[in-house]
Structure formats: C-alpha cells, structure tokens
Amino acid sequence: MLENRYAGRHVIVSPSTGGGLARLAEELGADIVAFGPEYRTPRGRVAVGRSAEALLQNGPTAVALAPAGYAGSAGARELDTIGILPGTADEAAIETAFSLAGRHEARVAQTASGIDLLVVGSRPEAPAGRVMLSSSAASAIERATVPVLVVARDAALSFETLVTA
Predict the structure, then answer these.
(1) CB neighbours of 153 closer than 8 A, spacing ≥ 6?
(2) Entry pTM
(3) How many domains does the structure of the chain reveal?
(4) What is the pLDDT of residues 41-65, one digit of tens each?
(5) Considering the domain boundaries, does residue 99 fall inside one?
(6) Is residue 8 part of a domain?
(7) What string of H, E and C letters represents the secondary structure of 78-132?
(8) What span, in angstroms and rounded, lies between the C-alpha atoms of 152 and 161?
(9) Which helix (H) or strand (E) holds 141?
(10) Which domain holds residue 113?
(11) CATH number of the domain to which 93 belongs
C-alpha cells in the first residue's frame, strides 16, 4: 500500500502495462519513466522487460533503466563519468549528457565502458519527441552494468546546475 500522502495516484486502464505507462506519461507530461530490473536479472545487469520495451519502441518520453541491485550499491551515489553511446550521439543525447554532467560535476565521454551512467540517443528516423532504439543500442543496453538513460529524439532533458556555496 502506498502510504506517502504526497505521492500522486493515477489509474490507467490498458490491456498492456507498457501502453498504459506510455499513455500516463503523455497525460502527465512526464520527462522520464524509470524502470528497475526484472526479478530474474543477475545483480549488476540491466534487463529490458516487456513494459520498458514498449516505451523503447516509439515511446513518448525518455526511459531510465537501473541494473539489478543498483540501489544498494556504492556506485549508486557516485556519478563521475557519463558515457554517450557511440553511434547514437544525436543533439538531444549530447545536451542531456552535458546537462547531467553540469549537475553532478562529472565528465562526458563518448564510450560505453568505464562509466557511471550511459546516455543513449534515439534512431535518426524516430519522430521528434519519441524514443526508438537501433538494434546496436538495444544490444549495448543489454550489456550495460550501469544505469542507462535513453533520450527521445530532439527532446533533450535539462537538469539544474549544481550550486555550491
């Protein structure tokens, strides 16, 4: 039972969870829909479940995917290097990566290894504001051991810059 009285509750009737989440994201104007791993996912790996898959193929919002066991790991608190998946580096993915880097005082690299977060762009033929993965991007996500953020085409995400006193 959801006991946080400040959390909103929304009911969407849909024959598929992914379709319902897509509709809810559009209705709320959500920037990101985040998914944890499926229950059978090995610790430290990202696995795309059916609901996430629906949003990764023409979804209306960015999609975040966490590896299994991430919340309890030491890496969940550090964000030093943000990787942009080579071959998917459209303007929205690049802007998003640099916005996050500014917020966390991190660096950006065009690589999928030795990083703390992987940013993936959508296919060039994706409609503006929609997420669509290439097969190489889907494969890279399945190999990921860090959180992944998939950005919708032409829909960069902006994160406030960290202000220090």
Answers:
(1) 90, 92, 121, 122, 123, 124, 126, 127, 128, 129, 130, 131, 132
(2) 0.85
(3) 1
(4) 777 778 888 888 888 999 999 999 9
(5) yes
(6) no
(7) CCCEEEECCCCCCHHHHHHHHHHHHHHCCEEECCCCCCCEEEECCCCCCCCCCEE
(8) 21
(9) helix 135-143
(10) 17-150
(11) 3.40.50.12370
Give the separation between CA 57 and CA 160, rounded to whole angstroms. 28
**Cα(147)–Cα(115) distance, integer angstroms:** 10
Query: What SS3 state is found at 74?
Result: helix
- What type of residue sits at position 80? D
Is 64 a member of any domain?
yes
Q: Is residue 7 part of a domain?
A: no
Q: What is the pLDDT of residues 56-98, one digit of tens each?
A: 999 999 999 988 877 766 555 678 999 999 888 789 999 999 9
